[in-house]
Automatic annotation (TrEMBL):
Non catalytic subunit of RNase H2, an endonuclease that specifically degrades the RNA of RNA:DNA hybrids. Participates in DNA replication, possibly by mediating the removal of lagging-strand Okazaki fragment RNA primers during DNA replication. Mediates the excision of single ribonucleotides from DNA:RNA duplexes. GO terms for cellular component: nucleoplasm; ribonuclease H2 complex. This is Ribonuclease H2 subunit B. Its main location: nucleus. GO terms for biological process: RNA catabolic process. CDD domains: RNase_H2-B. Gene3D superfamilies: 1.10.20.120, 2.20.25.530. Residues 299-309 have a biased composition (Basic and acidic residues). It is found in: Nucleus. The keyword Nucleus applies. Keywords: Nucleus. Residues 292-325 are annotated as: Disordered.
Length: 342
């Protein structure tokens, strides 16, 4: 079995010992102790991507309530630009130098494109449906759309309805569904849902608000450098800094939503002052560049003129040549006469 190096949560446990797409015998749902990797459409690109359901160790003893017993990890591969290997103690070498990074993902991101797939085209709110009916209607559309885009590739690059259906058995998915949908409890055993764009945007705005907090932004040096590059860390720029953090948070959320959802989210904010500030910085940078170029031109012209004078000065004959010019050469034959026929 191929060995990979990965970064993952501590409570993932034995689930990472299963190789990609290996099915566990007798696995009927997330009640099993281990699960397999799922190939699902990425919530932003809709391209096949790897995800891993796993039991949250700190809540493994929870049998009911609002707390999730299960979570979902996004699996990403970080490959070096050149061929690399991993070296370990006792001479062990792993030739595959890529690094697998597994990070928790909000199941709501996975649900949004599924719910959008069955949204009525006439702009109406649509019907309330049970979870199973939603997936039964959405899965064929999504699988067909994704597989058509990857039809030239082999089957490992496609997604299956089986993997998508696995989500319906995860409590974290069911709880996330209630955060982005209107729902009605028909009976204690039956709940129906309807996609709500308003609830989706409100939920994403809550994420943006949390990500834009000072304590969160300071955890990333890259984000701090970007804010400083735009001059937002200067004194007296507190309002612009707040807008900068909001936009930064929106950009982070945009990595997991489609373009139309991101457009609806960004429309909830007024970044006009920030845009004007950044435009002023760019205009000033362009002006400084032009001023520097103009300042160099006269110096270049002076240099050319000075060089010309120097060349003229160098063209003056030496004292020996000047003396020869004054010498009496009358009666002497010219040099050209030596080359004439006699």
């Amino acid at each position: 079995m191929t060995t990979h190096i990965g970064v993952l949560p501590l409570d993932l446990g034995d689930a990472v010992t299963r190789k990609v797409n290996e099915r566990v015998p007798g696995l009927d749902g997330p009640d099993a102790s281990t699960t397999s990797f799922l190939r699902l459409p990425h919530p932003r690109t809709a391209l096949p991507a790897l995800f891993l359901p796993y039991r949250l160790a700190q809540r493994a003893d929870v049998s009911s309530g609002s707390e999730d017993e299960w979570g979902i990890l996004e699996v990403q591969s970080v490959s070096p630009p050149n061929q690399r290997s991993w070296f370990f103690m006792e001479g062990e070498v792993i030739s595959d130098g890529k690094l697998l990074v597994m990070t928790p993902i909000d199941p709501a991101f996975l649900l949004i494109p599924i719910l959008q797939a069955i949204k009525p085209n006439d702009g109406s709110a649509g019907l309330f449906q049970p979870l199973d009916d939603i997936f039964d209607e959405a899965m064929p559309k999504i699988v067909r759309s994704v597989n058509e885009r990857t039809s030239e590739d082999a089957s490992p690059h496609s997604i299956s309805q089986e993997d998508m259906l696995f989500l319906t058995r995860c409590d974290c998915v069911i709880n996330a569904l209630k955060r982005i949908c209107d729902f009605q409890n028909i009976t204690p055993e039956l709940t129906v849902y309807r996609y709500s764009e308003d609830k989706v945007i409100e939920y994403l705005q809550a994420k943006v608000s949390r990500l834009s907090k000072h304590a969160v932004a300071e955890k990333s040096r890259t984000l701090i450098r970007n804010l400083a590059k735009d001059g937002l860390m200067d004194d007296g720029k507190e309002n612009l800094l707040e807008l900068g953090r909001l936009r930064m948070a929106c950009n982070l959320v945009s990595q997991y939503v489609t373009r139309d959802v991101y457009a609806a989210l960004i429309a909830k904010y007024d970044f006009t002052p920030l845009d004007a500030h950044i435009k002023a910085l760019k205009d000033q940078e362009i002006a400084n560049t032009l001023a520097g170029a103009q300042a160099k031109k006269p110096r270049a012209a002076d240099g050319v003129e000075d060089d010309g004078k120097k060349r003229k000065a160098k063209s003056k004959a030496s004292q020996g040549v000047e003396k020869l010019k004054k010498a009496n050469v009358s009666g002497m034959s010219k040099i050209s006469s030596f080359f004439q026929k006699k």
